[in-house]
Amino acid sequence: MQFTAKQISEFLDGVIEGDATVEVGELSKIENGNAGSLCFLSNPKYESYLYTTQASVVIVSSDFVPAQPIHSTLIKVKDPYSAFSVLLEKYNEALNQDNRPAGIEQPSFIHPTAKIGNNVYIGAFCCIEENVEIGDNTKIYTQTYVGAETKIGNDCVIFPGVKIYNRSKLGNRITIHSNAVIGSDGFGFAPQPDGTYNKIAQIGNVVIEDDVEIGANTTIDRATMGSTFIRKGAKLDNLIQIAHNVDVGAHAVVAAQSGISGSTKLGENSVIGGQVGIAGHLTLGKGTQVGAQAGINFNTEENKQWHGSPAQPLKEWMRSTVIFKKLPEVDKRIRELEAKIAELTAIIEHIGTIQK
Known about the structure:
Layout: E1 3-4, H1 5-12, E2 15-17, E3 23-24, E4 26-27, E5 37-40, H2 47-50, E6 57-61, E7 73-77, H3 80-96, E8 103-104, E9 109-110, E10 115-116, E11 121-122, E12 127-128, E13 133-134, E14 139-140, E15 145-146, E16 151-152, E17 157-158, E18 163-164, E19 169-170, E20 175-176, E21 181-184, E22 189-191, E23 197-199, E24 205-208, E25 213-214, E26 219-221, E27 227-230, E28 235-236, E29 241-242, E30 247-248, E31 253-254, E32 259-260, E33 265-266, E34 271-272, E35 277-278, E36 283-284, E37 289-290, E38 295-296, E39 305-307, E40 312-313, H4 314-355
């Protein structure tokens, strides 16, 4: 498929600088763009590639001014990253339009009480238990397990190997990547006088609202009682642990290898970096931002940034980081000063002895 720069700019509501008739047929990264490809520039550290790329069209910010001559046609938009993501989605849809699966493959098990919507795909070796409901246009790929009384909405994509436990509730347009586990038991054990632990039954479920995406190998535990919630539009990366009764707010983003302990509420529009640990029974305010590998063990206010472990406000953490880097030098200076003090003390004591 070929599109002119003019057609793309009209779709993105952008402004063209250069040849409006040039055609592109593929998307690429700016550092290795070739003739006939389209790419974008949103991060200033990649600007140097703009002057060497062979890409025919580059999407840039509306206020971008080149510092050197360029060969590509520019399409100026308000947000290059978002504009390019829209094109990626459209391109992906076009690539897969003729290859979208439909129907029920065999062997697979579907309980007679399950309700399957229109244009549903269920891959081979899937197991769909009793009283499950699956909405229209949903795709469930091979070796997926869907437990009893689970409800899955319309236009969902469940990739191979996903396990969804009983009574989970999934909304519309949800994507779950391979080997994620939805609704496994929460980590609840009661300590006994003899040092052993009794398991606490986990009788709740998981509720995932519309437009959520969940990465591969992520685990979301069912609630002890009530529900664990993943709210509308939240995005969870790979290898994340969401514990029982957690409430992940709408449009929150959590990066890989992070863990949120039981009964914590993560505010809407929060951004959690990779390998962050969040303790239980906390409330993180709307718009909270937490840097990678930080540890949070306290409630946070809205729209605050936190870094470090234990976490500190961003500015305090930056000042602390400067001090940390200087600690070896400071330690050396302290040792030198201690030696000089000891030397001076010895001299003073010697003088005192002579005077006596």
